[in-house]
Amino acid sequence: MSVHHGFRATMTARPGRGDEVIALLLGAPSLPHPDCVVFLVGRSAGDPDVIHVTEGWTTAEAHSAFFATEPAQTLVAELQKLITGDSQYTDEVPVGGKAFVR
Amino acid sequence: MSVHHGFRATMTARPGRGDEVIALLLGAPSLPHPDCVVFLVGRSAGDPDVIHVTEGWTTAEAHSAFFATEPAQTLVAELQKLITGDSQYTDEVPVGGKAFVR
């Protein structure tokens, strides 16, 4: 499937709460969503509370529709409790490659 | 497979050469390599000459061994001709997720 919408978000967990943020993200309702083609969670090796998510969606509309759902908003609310400050966003649209991280 | 080594590189293609850089990266010898678990190519929507690669490897040793091979060094040399300035690296180790971009 091709990707026409994407972004990368970097967030900082409250001190020591990085594992909880990772667990929330790896259980995100985006992952099984058919229009979510890329959902890659990464972490800083130097600071395990700095966490990145790179997302790629078939369309911006599909992402917006998903983001308005209750599961998505629940995830956002849960994340807000665990992170400090605002997430930073980078303009990145995934174009190809692989990721089979288990 | 789990990832114990990773990074994210951001490079800027010479003006208008972004497509060639993407093509080189999507043909990179890293992609079929069994120790390369994540190789995600992304591109700025705002500036198609800004290109990102997020890599995840089973170990740092596996990556170093691969990087010393002729195919890897040939890729680096080819990329050097197409990019301007130095690539910027971000400390990111992929921890989970999916990417099936074709």
Automatic annotation (TrEMBL), chains A, B:
Residues 5-93 form the ABM domain. This is ABM domain-containing protein. Pfam families: ABM (PF03992). It comes from Actinoplanes cyaneus.
